Amino acid sequence: MTDSDRGRTGAREFDLILFGATGFTGRLVAEYLVKKRPSLRWALAGRSFGRLERVRNELATLEPSAKELPLLVGNSMDRAAMDRLVRRTRVLCTTAGPYARYGSALLGACAEQGTDYCDLTGETHWVREMIDTHHARAVETGARIVPSCGFDSIPSDLGVLMLHEALVARGGRLAEAHYRVLRMKGAASGGTIASALHAAERMGDPSVRRVLADPYALNPEGARSGPGPEDSFRPRKDPETGRWLAPFFMAPVNTRVVRRSNALLDQAYGHEFRYDETVDVGAGFTGLARAAMTSAGMVMSGAVAFAPVRMLAARLLPAPGEGPSREEREGGWFDIELLGVGTAGERVRARVGAKQDPGYGATSWMLGESALCLAQDELPRRGGLLTPASCMGMKLVERLRAIGMTFQVESAPQ
Fold this sequence. Notes:
Layout: H1 3-11, E1 14-19, H2 24-34, E2 42-46, H3 49-62, E3 71-73, H4 79-86, E4 89-94, H5 99-102, H6 104-113, E5 116-118, H7 124-141, E6 144-146, H8 154-169, E7 174-185, H9 190-202, H10 206-213, E8 236-237, E9 244-247, H11 251-264, E10 274-282, H12 284-300, H13 307-316, H14 326-330, E11 333-342, E12 347-354, H15 358-376, E13 384-385, H16 388-391, H17 393-402, E14 406-411
């Protein structure tokens, strides 16, 4: 029996540890989990006991039993401390980013100790580094390491999986999928901005630039090529609707995760699978103008690769620990449509959405349910650096439907 097997049969002290609980998103995930606490043995973890204690006191105003939550202190850059921490739990859920700066020791400890893991990273270059460093060991220990369990990249990854399942149920097979953001309202937190600025800083490294430019950057060895188009920042018309499409700022992250899922699922979507993500900005001249403005904004955002621009942005934008108010989060939403096309030309359509700010309200739901899925559900016994679709799949879809998120599939006009 492996160490991870022993943990999953109840030998470990905790079902779940939430690391980074004092950060903005960490507090939101803690609030979400405290509502699920009756059947869960869990703890809050971070670098400061005082800040953890304040979070616990806030949670106790929502649920009095939260006063008994254990508080665990450790520095995420101290590998020995992280080894000790993760040996105590079956699942480690972390919101402490930027992950390329603060996450490597923690993820590595989980891979070594056979502890399941989930996070919110959108840092493709870091995920590639973690695959290269820890995937083989996680396979050996049975640790299910699942990055990108928030708005990056659950709507994309599980949306495509739903299309695949729907076509298979009809006797078909998915050949291509097209993700369109129809409507979205949300705000950014300081933590997300810090991650973006840190990623921009790494752009000075040619090896990082190569990873970010590669559409198959996260695929396993031997599966790093295919027909999928490279990312485009130019406006274009949707051949299905005639409406204008603009580049989606999260596509360079999400598309890599979806392609890794296909590879990890033994090319379930096919070796010639095509996938893209864009924003539907409307029809006519107004749509074209919006698409052009979005494209220009994407191009200009590359200026943060220059140190003076990063320094200015860091001074003007929200700092880590800051983010949208409860009213702003509850007033947000997102509505995404995915069109799947089968190998015989058959079509199926999926909708994914939530009535919450996508990056914080809905993300805290998605990460919380991912952690609970790893802790409580019967899942395939495979370890490694996985994806939401290849690890949790339709089990996670069912959980997210149950809490009020939209995950629907319907036939599309042929």
